[in-house]
Amino acid sequence: MAVVFNKYIIGFFLIFSSFIVIAEGTEIEFEKKMMSMALKEFLNAKKAAENIIDSCEKMEENIVIPRSSVLSIDLSLRDLEISLYYLNRKARDDCEGSYLAQFYVSASRYRTTAKHYDREAGEALPYTEEKLYGSAWREFRIKLDYYGIEASKRKALENIVELKKPFNLHKTLGELGVH
Amino acid sequence: MKCVSINELKFDKESLAAIKDIRRRSNLSILLSRIMPTGTITNIFLGNGLLKSSYNISQADFEALAQAMQSLPVILRRVISNIAREQQLYHSGNEREFWVGVENGCGVQ
């Protein structure tokens, strides 16, 4: 009687153990799929962001703002310099649209998914918020300086069609005699 | 694109903070040390040793920097380029020339 009972216990234990192994295996597979999905989203967003940066850079390469475009606006050389840096950055941001923002979001989603499963998100580590936005205060300084320029002059600049699209900043600074 | 040499370059606090920012944000120094292990610009971005009072940066330094920048992932290159541009606007002379070089590898004027 005791031998039969022991057989049942062993049998039950073996079946129970195999359930645990299967469940663990399924869970690991599930984690892998989740991680793979997050990584794929991140890599796709990275590729899209890189492509748009490249294409906007190529677009601006040969575009130089002619002197005649800004001639009628009474600006000091310093104000013109600040305006060109600010408007160039704005035109780049507009050109890149939401691709870069989407990339930042996907990097963060990938990192947090990895953290949840106690894994590494190596590919996204160089793209943390601190690394990407750590010097945002410098951008605000340029914006603040730009907004220090008389509103009517800013409006006149912002109405220049060529300044709304990416342009070659350094060639333009040279063309307009700023540097 | 014209490469320039810069002699007697002195960094102010603002530039030094930006250099530290770039060090933190990328592996630019590692890429530079592979291309030009003993270059001045490599030492600046590696941040090893004591800070010198002035630097002489050669054309070769800027060429190595251009190469290293090209090896960086596009998005990180953009982050560094933005920092360099912000520095250009608030500096003049040699220091501005240096930051134009960081952005473009060589001065473009």
Describe this protein's structure.
The complex is a heterodimer of chains A (179) and B (109). Chain A has one domain (2-175). In chain A, helix 1 (2-60) packs antiparallel against helix 4 and helix 3 (77-96) crosses helix 6. Chain A has helices spanning 2-60, 67-70, 77-96, 99-116, 129-133, 136-147, 151-158, 161-164, 169-175. Chain A is an all-alpha fold and 179 residues long. Chain B has one domain. Chain B is 63% helix and 6% strand. Chain B has 6 helices and 2 strands; from the N terminus they run E-H-H-H-E-H-H-H. Chain B has helices at residues 13-25, 28-35, 40-46, 59-71, 74-89, 93-104, and strands at 6-9, 55-57. Chain B has a two-stranded antiparallel ribbon with strand order 1-2. In chain B, helix 2 (28-35) packs across helix 4.
Quick summary:
Chain A is mainly α.
Could you tell me the strand content of chain B as a percent range?
5-15%
Mean pLDDT of chain A: 90
Q: How large is the count of helical segments of chain B?
A: 6
**Spans of chain B with pLDDT under 50 lasting ≥5 residues?**
none
Strand order of the largest sheet of chain B: 1-2
Strand content of chain A: under 5%
Order of helices and strands of chain B: EHHHEHHH
Question: Largest sheet of chain B at a glance?
Answer: 2 strands, antiparallel
- Uncertain regions of chain A: pLDDT < 50 for 5+ in a row? none
Tally of helical runs of chain A: 9
Please, what is the oligomeric state? heterodimer
Describe how the helices and strands are arranged:
The complex is a heterodimer of chains A (179) and B (109).
Chain A: H1 2-60, H2 67-70, H3 77-96, H4 99-116, H5 129-133, H6 136-147, H7 151-158, H8 161-164, H9 169-175
Helix pairs in contact in A: 1-4, 3-6
Chain B: E1 6-9, H1 13-25, H2 28-35, H3 40-46, E2 55-57, H4 59-71, H5 74-89, H6 93-104
Antiparallel strand pairs in B: 1-2
Q: Which descriptors would you attach to this protein?
A:
heterodimer; A: 179 residues; mainly alpha; B: 109 residues; two-stranded antiparallel sheet; 6% strand; globular
